[in-house]
Amino acid sequence: QGQEKLSCAPRKENGTHVVLCELGNPMKAGAQITVELELSVSGLEDAGDAVTFQLQLQSKNSPSSANTSVTVTVPVEAEATMELRGTSLPATTVLPAEWHGAGDSQRLEDHGIRVEHVYQLHNKGPSTVTGVTLHLAVPTRLGGRILLHLLGLSTEGGVTCTGPPGLDAEQV
């Protein structure tokens, strides 16, 4: 008929987490009730594709030999929104139309203007993420000519980075 909040208490029995909810007493014979439970489960990173709950209904008044246990399997779906932000310093670079770099020079300034690209990958949640791979393609040649000299890569925050083949191939 009406809606009531249940009083539930978590506890551990035989290495299993148990939540005991008291529905109330006395109940009339033949009474039918509907119970909705909302459980918050943490540490699902290693749970796999689903979490299984075993629900059991017991009466303190009359022990029953009937199997009053049911297994419920709930699929686990992790959700995380990743955001990639990037900036270039300086934001714009203009070279003269007839500019040619000094091909054999080892001096950085003879090969053009230094531009630093900074990328930040943010997890906006709600779940945590592991094993994320970001592939970043950078055009190094245009029309058979060198467009960008990739000189180095660095990371922060426990991220590993694999440099492309030919990183600083000109040894500038």
Protein model, in words:
- With 172 residues, this protein is mainly beta.
- It folds into 2 domains: 7-75, no CATH class; 78-171, no CATH class.
- It is 0% helix and 31% strand.
- It is built from no helices and 8 strands.
- It has strands spanning 7-13, 16-22, 50-56, 69-75, 80-89, 116-126, 141-142, 145-146.
- The strands form 4 sheets. The chain has a two-stranded antiparallel sheet with strand order 1-2. Strands 3-4 form a two-stranded antiparallel ribbon.
- The chain is rod-shaped, with a radius of gyration of 31 Å.
- The termini are far apart.
- The model has no long low-confidence stretch (mean pLDDT 78).
Describe the SSE topology.
Layout (H helix, E strand, L loop, with lengths): L6 E7 L2 E7 L27 E7 L12 E7 L4 E10 L26 E11 L14 E2 L2 E2 L26
Antiparallel strand pairs: 1-2, 3-4, 5-6, 7-8
Order of strands, main sheet, comes to: 1-2
Q: How would you name the oligomeric state of the polypeptide chains in this document?
A: single chain
> Which descriptor suits the 3D outline?
rod-shaped
Number of strands: 8
How many H/I helices? Answer: 0
Largest sheet report: 2 strands, antiparallel
Structural class: mainly beta
CA distance, first residue to last residue: 80 Å
Helix fraction bin: under 10%
What's the mean pLDDT score? 78
**Residue windows where pLDDT falls under 50 for at least 5 positions:** none
- How much of the sequence is in beta strands? 25-35%
Order of helices and strands: EEEEEEEE
* Rg over C-alpha atoms, rounded to the nearest angstrom: 31 Å
Return the domain count. 2
Subcellular location: Membrane
GO biological process, one term: cell-matrix adhesion
Keywords: Glycoprotein, Integrin, Membrane
GO molecular function: integrin binding
